[in-house]
Design brief:
Number of domains: 2
Mean pLDDT: 93
Protein name: DNA-3-methyladenine glycosylase II
InterPro entries: Alkylbase_DNA_Glycosylase/TA, DNA_glycosylase, HhH-GPD_domain
Order of helices and strands: HHHHHHHHHHHHH
Number of helices: 13
Number of strands: 0
CATH class of the largest domain: Mainly Alpha
Largest sheet: none
CATH architecture of the largest domain: Orthogonal Bundle
Organism: Candidatus Collierbacteria bacterium GW2011_GWA2_46_26
Structural class: mainly alpha
Low-confidence stretches: none
Shape: elongated
Helix content: 55-70%
Strand content: under 5%
CATH superfamily of the largest domain: Hypothetical protein, domain 2
CATH topology of the largest domain: Endonuclease III, domain 1
Distance between the termini: 17 Å
Radius of gyration: 18 Å
Keywords: DNA damage, DNA repair
Catalytic activity: Hydrolysis of alkylated DNA, releasing 3-methyladenine, 3-methylguanine, 7-methylguanine and 7-methyladenine
Length: about 200
Amino acid sequence: MDITLAKKHLQKDPQLKPLLERYTIEARGISADLFRDLLESIIGQQLSVKAADTIIQRFINLFADAKNIRPEDVLGQDDVTLRSVGLSRQKISYLRSLSEFIVSEKIILNALKDQPDELVITSLTAVKGIGRWTAEMVLIFSLGREDIFSVGDLGLRTAVSRIYGVDREDKTKIEKISQTWSPFRSVASLYLWRSLDNK
């Protein structure tokens, strides 16, 4: 992500400009471990940050090489062990689905880095337990894509609602506002989240 170039474009929006002046954000690059990011995204779904962090750490501790967890390692864990770290049966099935997709090469993670945004979303949402929102977060935070806006994200809609005075449930209007930030919608999103005191 080129934050400097993005800010130059985004400051044309008078409502967004104060956020650019008030907050500092970090550019996102391509993750060194996309599989790990996806595992953590699935585990963290519908959990508080604190609860997610606890379960993720317990999950990681199951593996001999915690810094290099492979799909085969996940598939090698039995359900009882996975349940013991706080994972629901549903999330266990999601983690297995992801791992099976990768082992069978239905998804080649390295190839995602060069694929168009919508193709990445299509590939990831084929996995049980990965919806569009999760795929969009992967595009922003793990693949460093610059032009993603997740209208399904309640935090983003809340921030836009506060700044632009629109109903946060009016996804059509919010999507239209976001189009003015293209091709740097991801960077705008990072500032909007920051305005909510999110990391």
